[in-house]
Design a protein that fits this description.
This protein is an alpha/beta fold and 671 residues long. Helices cover 46% and strands 21% of the residues. One of its GO terms (cellular component) is plasma membrane.
C-alpha cells in the first residue's frame, strides 16, 4: 500500500517567500494543500483540507495575525502549527507559546532545518495523540470503580458507632457484620506506612475540622494491597456541635496503576522523543559535517583542476599569440582545439561550483535594473556561430511592455545562454531556434526558448532539472555535456523568485518558458564578485614602477608549481619585463627585499610560507609597496576577500587570460 503524503498548508503573505517554501516542500516530497495569506483563510483551509501540518507566518495581513490564527486552530482542530517569522524578540516568543506551537523557525532558514522541524512536529503530534488516547482509556476504567459509604456518629468528641454500606465488601473484603464486631477494623487494615496519616486526619475530623480528600493504601481481607480515596463531610447540630460525619471510600487502585502506567509511558515517550531528537540532531550534525567536507572537497578539486589548466591554457594562449614563433594553420587549428577543450573543462568546474554554492546558500544575486532586450540580444550573439555551423535559423520576438527588469544581469544571461545552447545542440541541421519575450497581466515577464529539435518524452521531462542527469545515457552519446546546465537554470530562476516550465513533443521540438516577477524588491541586493574577474583594491598605491622608467620593470613570480611559474616567466619576458621566480612565500619575501620588484604575482597555497602570510609581511616592509596580484587556483566563496584583505591589489583565479593579466600589470604599474 502506498504511503500517504503529508499534507501541508502554507500561511505566508509574501508571494515570493511562499513560492520558495512551496518549492522546498515539494522537493522534500510533501503535498501542498494550499497557500494562503491571511489568518482567516488559514482557519478555513485547515478545516476544509484536514491538513497534517500548518506553516504559519506570524506577521499576516487581515484582522488576525499568525499567533491568533494558531490559537483558533488549536481550539477547533487538532493540527500542529510551526511558526515561520523574521522576528524573534522575547515578546513575540511569549505570545507564540500561548498557542502551543510545534516549532519555531527564524527566516531565512535552510531546507534541512525546515525538513527536521516538520518531521519533529509530526512525530510529537503523533505521540501526543497516543497520550490522549491512553488517558481516555484510563478514565473509562476509573469510571467503573465501585465505592462505598460509611457514617461515624460522634458523642462528646468520641466515635460512638460506625455504619458501613453493603458495598464495603467489594472494596475491603470485609462484611458489614465484621466492621460492627470490630470498631477498630478500619484502622487495623490501613497499610502500615499510611497508618499515621490516617490517624491524624481522623483526629482532626473528630475535632470538627474539615479534611481534604486524601488517598492511602489498605490491606484487604485476602491480603491484597489496594489504594482508596477517602472523602469526608461533617454534620453539626444547631449549636454547631459535631454529631457525625459521612465518608465515601473509593477503590482507586486501577486509577493509581493507570497513573503509574501513564507516568511510565510518559517517561518512555519522553525518552523516545529525546532519543529521536538526539538522532535528528546527530543527523543534522552529520549533514553539516558532510556539507563542510563537500565544500572542502570542491575547494581542493577546484584548486587541483585549475592549476594544470592554468599551464595548459596559458601556454596555449602564448603560442596562439606567436610569442614563441610563427604557426602553421595546422598548428593553429590544433591549439584552438586544445584551448576549446580546456575552456570546456573550466566551464564544467564553474558549473559544479555554482551548483554547490546554490545548495549551500552561498550564491547571492546582484540585483539591478536590467535592459531585457540587450540581455536577450547578447545571449543570442553567444550561440550565433554554433547555429550558423548547423545552418539553424535564429529568430527573436520581443513584445514586452517594460524595457527593464530587476535581476542579476550575469545570471540572467547565463540562464538564456544555457537554454539557447541546448536548443542549438538538440536541433538538427536546417532547423529553427527562437527566443520570444512577452509580458502579461500577471506582473511577470515570460521568456520562451523554443526549437524544432528532437523533443523530449513526458517521462523524461520530470528528470530534466536534476543534477548530472542526461536523457541520452548511452556510451555513444551524440550530445556531450555534464547534465548540470538545466539544474543550474532551475535553481537560478528560483533565486529570482520565478519558475520554469517545459512543453515538448518528441520529433517536433521543445519550449522552455522562464517566468520572472516584474518586482523583485525582496531579493538580495548584493553579490560577491565573480571569482574569475579581478578586483583592484584602491587602498594601496604603487611607487615601484614609475611611468617613464627606462629600465624594464621587475616582476616576481611566486608559485610552487614549477611549470606554471616558468610559463608565466617566459610570457612576461617576451612582453618586455624582467622576471624572477620564487618557489614559496618565504623565498618571495626574501627576493622582494633584495630585488624590490615592481609587481608580484603571488600564488596562495605554497609550502614553507603561504601566499597570504607572505603578502602581509611584504605590506609591513617600510618604503616598499609593490603591486601584488593574487594569482591562485582558489576560487571558492570568500577567497577573493581574504586575498584583498591580506593586502593584494588584485585577485585573479587560475586559469587566467594572459592578455588580461598583461593589461592589469600595465595598469597597476602606470597608475
Amino acid at each position: 500500500m502506498a504511503q500517504t503524503q503529508t499534507s501541508i498548508l502554507i500561511v505566508e503573505d509574501e508571494v515570493i517567500v511562499a513560492e520558495n517554501i512551496r518549492t522546498k516542500l515539494e522537493r522534500l516530497g510533501y503535498a501542498i494543500a494550499d497557500v494562503v495569506s491571511t489568518g482567516e483563510q488559514a482557519i478555513q483551509k485547515a478545516l476544509k483540507y484536514q491538513v497534517d501540518v500548518v506553516l504559519m507566518d506570524i506577521e499576516l495581513e487581515g484582522k488576525i495575525d499568525g499567533i491568533d490564527a494558531a490559537k483558533h486552530l488549536h481550539l477547533l482542530y487538532d493540527v500542529p502549527v510551526i511558526y515561520l517569522t523574521a522576528y524573534a524578540d522575547e515578546k513575540t516568543l511569549q505570545r507564540a507559546k500561548l498557542a502551543e506551537p510545534f516549532g519555531y523557525l527564524i527566516k531565512p532558514f535552510q531546507t534541512r532545518e525546515l525538513h527536521s522541524c516538520i518531521e519533529m512536529a509530526i512525530y510529537r503530534h503523533q505521540l501526543e495523540r497516543m497520550l490522549k488516547d491512553s488517558e481516555e482509556r484510563y478514565r473509562r476504567l476509573i469510571a467503573a470503580v465501585t465505592d462505598y459509604i460509611y457514617t461515624v456518629r460522634v458523642q462528646d468528641g468520641r466515635a460512638e458507632s460506625t455504619e458501613h454500606s453493603a458495598t464495603c465488601i467489594a472494596v475491603t473484603g470485609y462484611t458489614q457484620e465484621e466492621f460492627r464486631k470490630n470498631p477498630h477494623l478500619w484502622i487495623q487494615m490501613v497499610y502500615d506506612a499510611d497508618c499515621q496519616m490516617v490517624i491524624e486526619r481522623t483526629e482532626r475530623l473528630m475535632e470538627g475540622q474539615n479534611v481534604e480528600p486524601y488517598e492511602h493504601r489498605i490491606i484487604r481481607k485476602d491480603g491484597a494491597v489496594r489504594w482508596v480515596r477517602n472523602t469526608s463531610v461533617l454534620h453539626h447540630d444547631k449549636q454547631g456541635v459535631l454529631i457525625s460525619y459521612d465518608g465515601l471510600v473509593q477503590d482507586i487502585t486501577e486509577r493509581k496503576e493507570s497513573e503509574l502506567a501513564l507516568q511510565q509511558e510518559r517517561e518512555s515517550l519522553t525518552r523516545r522523543v529525546e532519543e529521536r531528537t538526539a538522532e535528528l540532531q546527530q543527523a543534522n550534525a552529520e549533514l553539516a559535517r558532510a556539507a563542510r567536507m563537500k565544500d572542502e572537497f570542491l575547494a581542493t578539486m577546484s584548486h587541483e583542476f585549475r592549476t594544470p589548466l592554468h599551464t595548459i591554457l596559458g601556454m596555449t594562449e602564448a603560442l596562439q599569440e606567436e610569442i614563441f614563433g610563427a604557426l602553421t594553420q595546422k598548428q593553429r587549428d590544433a591549439l584552438n582545439s586544445i584551448d576549446e577543450s580546456g575552456r570546456h573543462l573550466l566551464a564544467i568546474i564553474r558549473d559544479i561550483l555554482d551548483l554547490a554554492k546554490i545548495g549551500a546558500g552561498k550564491l547571492e544575486l546582484l540585483i539591478s535594473p536590467v535592459n531585457i532586450e540587450n540581455v536577450c540580444q547578447a545571449s543570442l550573439r553567444f550561440i550565433k556561430q554554433e547555429a550558423s555551423k548547423k545552418r539553424i535559423a535564429i529568430s527573436f520576438d520581443f513584445q514586452a511592455a517594460m524595457p527593464t527588469l530587476d535581476a542579476d544581469e550575469r545570471r540572467l544571461k547565463q540562464i538564456f545562454v544555457n537554454l539557447l545552447s541546448n536548443a542549438v545542440k538538440f536541433t538538427p541541421e536546417g532547423g529553427q531556434v527562437g527566443l520570444d519575450v512577452r509580458s502579461e497581466h500577471d506582473h511577470q515577464v515570460h521568456f520562451t526558448v523554443w526549437d524544432t529539435g528532437i523533443g523530449i518524452s513526458p517521462e523524461d521531462i520530470q528528470r530534466l532539472f536534476q543534477p548530472f542527469v542526461q536523457l541520452d545515457g548511452t556510451f555513444t552519446r551524440r550530445h556531450p555535456g555534464t547534465g548540470l546546465g538545466l539544474s543550474l537554470v532551475s535553481r537560478m530562476v528560483e533565486m529570482h523568485g520565478g519558475h520554469i516550465s517545459v512543453t515538448s513533443t518528441v520529433g517536433k521540438g521543445s519550449r522552455f518558458t522562464v517566468s520572472l516577477p516584474v518586482h523583485n524588491a525582496s531579493l538580495v541586493q548584493h553579490q560577491e564578485q565573480i571569482q574569475e574577474e579581478s578586483t583592484i583594491s584602491p587602498g594601496i598605491a604603487n611607487d615601484s614602477a614609475p611611468n617613464n622608467s627606462t629600465t624594464a620593470p621587475m616582476i616576481l613570480v611566486a608559485d610552487d608549481h614549477e611549470t606554471n611559474a616558468e610559463m608565466l616567466a617566459e610570457y612576461l619576458k617576451l612582453k618586455g619585463y624582467a622576471v624572477a621566480i620564487a618557489k614559496d612565500g618565504k623565498e618571495a619575501l626574501e627576493q622582494t627585499i633584495q630585488m624590490r620588484p615592481a609587481a608580484i604575482l603571488m600564488d596562495i597555497q605554497m609550502p614553507v610560507m603561504g601566499g597570504l602570510e607572505a603578502i602581509q609581511h611584504i605590506r609591513a616592509l617600510p618604503d616598499m609597496s609593490p603591486a601584488i596580484i593574487a594569482l591562485t587556483a582558489l576560487a571558492m566563496p570568500g577567497d577573493r576577500e581574504r586575498c584583498i584583505e591580506a593586502g593584494a591589489n588584485e585577485y585573479m583565479s587560475k586559469p587566467v587570460n594572459l592578455r588580461k593579466l598583461d593589461g592589469i600589470i600595465h595598469k597597476l604599474l602606470n597608475r
